[in-house]
Amino acid sequence: KQWYQRxxxxxxxxxxxxxxxxxxxxxxFKLAMLSYKALNGLAPSYRQDLFHYSHHGHSPKLIVxxxxxxxxxxxxxSVIRPRLYNALPDSIKQSETLGIFKSSLKTFLFSITDxxxxxxxxxxx
Length: 125
Description:
Elements: H1 2-17, H2 23-39, H3 45-48, E1 53-56, E2 59-62, H4 77-87, H5 90-93, H6 98-111, H7 114-121
Antiparallel strand pairs: 1-2
């Protein structure tokens, strides 16, 4: 038990020192990056074809596919990806370059609490 506690402490120290994201936040980071690249023409065409969006207001919103029941489909790539991207602040989604998007997104993910993270993943249900 003491060995495990020491290992967890070393792991959390590495996260802070190397400025790494926690696993759940890293997954959100990667999904948001895929979405940003596809929407801005930085991804291959087959990946761009996976995204469907509509213009409501001044920023495009990705269309979340309708699922009649909740279950594993609610957590599928085609559902969670647009849901997460739509839940991001407009200031991040409207970044001019990929570098600015990455930096803004990482700062945003470091600043939110675990409760905010859970609300982000459950947005638009």
